């Protein structure tokens, strides 16, 4: 059997990122999960996954000087990097007019700047080896409006622009770059939202329900797989038809 | 291998893989005037990082960008020394 290919998934200690990590591990990849700290949920998932398929590396991605060393240690410990899933993000809500400047800047820093720099360091190895997969987690809020999420929305829209143009840059070298745009998914990020709002979103969606983390994980796994070899520069929406 | 021979070997490998025709690789060759385009250059930076563990372009100003092959070799020589220090 050939060696499993290594994929980095950021923000994989919980929520959508953890679902992505488990799904990719089940599909035969060697997953390196990155977050500031591991979690019981991650440890449990790693135990349930095929032996040696889920690894954890602690890193605060907001510390941009830590990104190049992070990529180096992944390569040393786990070999060449085949895939990168930029999933880690924060969702700080706030009306723009009253949002503290540091909250605006933290959102842009972690959700936009960090994935761009991390991709910069990872994509080099992919270019040199002539193959690779990059998946950026955006949001339907990148193209629909949502009160009190303008800064978050801007960071998620940035991932789409980044995806499209980067796919042009690296396509010639066999590297694909795509985005997924989840709709409302129940995770720690959205737990502040009240029950009636949740029901309203479910009722308005074409399928009358909400998508869950596994739905997003399956979309990402498709884009990382060999089956998606001719898919690049695109955005796959996973929202149970909420924006249909 | 000297820094110059490593860089020249990589440039030759990249241009071969990407069907580029290059003039003789002399120190005064101006990279921008050849078929060695920005993508080839990005590949060179990636492969040199593999060899040396350094990337002199991460923190550079545009004004300091190397113009000739000789400048490029000198840049990597300095970066390798700084990294070892
Ligand atoms: N939930 C939704 O409804 C929804 C909808 C559309 C799009 N999305 C997108 O889906 C992605 C995942 O969201 P989620 O709902 O799963 O979020 P979540 O449950 O809050 O998880 C966020 C993950 O990111 C990590 N993280 C946060 N700050 C970090 C930092 N500074 N450095 C490293 N890791 C950090 C967290 O771990 P630590 O805190 O331990 O670092 C955690 O693993 C995000 O890109 C989000 O924008 C979510």
From TrEMBL, chain A:
Entry-linked Pfam families: adh_short_C2
InterPro entries given in the database record: NAD(P)-bd_dom_sf, Sc_DH/Rdtase_CS, SDR, SDR_fam
Tree of life domain: Bacteria
Family as reported in the entry's similarity comment: Belongs to the short-chain dehydrogenases/reductases (SDR) family.
Record's protein name: 3-oxoacyl-[acyl-carrier-protein] reductase FabG
Natural source organism: Methylobacterium thuringiense
From TrEMBL, chain B:
Domain of life: Bacteria
Protein's name in the database: Acyl carrier protein
Organism listed in the record: Methylobacterium thuringiense
């Amino acid at each position: 059997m050939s060696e499993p290919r290594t994929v980095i998934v950021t923000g994989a200690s919980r929520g959508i990122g953890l679902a992505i990590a488990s799904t990719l591990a089940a599909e035969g990849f060697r997953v390196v999960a990155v977050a500031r700290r591991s979690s019981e949920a991650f440890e449990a998932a790693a135990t349930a996954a095929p032996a040696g398929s889920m690894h954890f590396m602690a890193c605060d991605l907001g510390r941009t000087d830590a990104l190049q060393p992070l990529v180096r240690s992944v390569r040393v410990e786990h070999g060449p990097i085949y895939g990168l899933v930029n999933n880690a993000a924060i969702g700080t809500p706030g009306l723009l007019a009253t949002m503290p400047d540091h909250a605006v800047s933290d959102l842009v820093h972690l959700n936009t700047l960090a994935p761009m720099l991390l991709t910069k360091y990872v994509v080099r190895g992919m270019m040199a080896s002539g193959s690779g997969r990059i998946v950026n987690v955006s949001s339907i809020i990148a193209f629909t409006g949502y009160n009190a999420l303008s800064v978050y929305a801007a960071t998620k829209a940035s991932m789409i622009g980044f995806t499209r143009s980067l796919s042009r840059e690296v396509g010639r070298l066999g590297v694909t770059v795509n985005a997924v745009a989840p709709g409302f998914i129940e995770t720690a990020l959205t737990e502040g939202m009240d029950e009636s709002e949740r029901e309203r979103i479910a009722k308005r969606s074409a399928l009358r329900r909400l998508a869950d983390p596994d739905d997003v994980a399956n979309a990402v796994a498709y884009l990382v797989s060999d089956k998606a070899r001719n898919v690049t520069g695109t955005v796959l929406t996973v929202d149970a038809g909420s924006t249909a | 291998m000297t820094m110059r021979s490593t860089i020249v070997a990589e440039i030759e490998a990249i241009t071969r893989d990407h069907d580029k025709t290059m003039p003789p690789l002399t120190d005064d060759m101006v990279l921008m005037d050849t078929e060695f385009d920005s993508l080839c250059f990005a590949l060179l930076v990636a492969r040199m990082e593999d060899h040396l563990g350094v990337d002199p372009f991460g923190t550079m100003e545009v004004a300091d960008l190397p113009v000739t092959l000789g400048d490029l070799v000198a840049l990597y020589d300095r970066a390798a020394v700084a990294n070892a220090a």
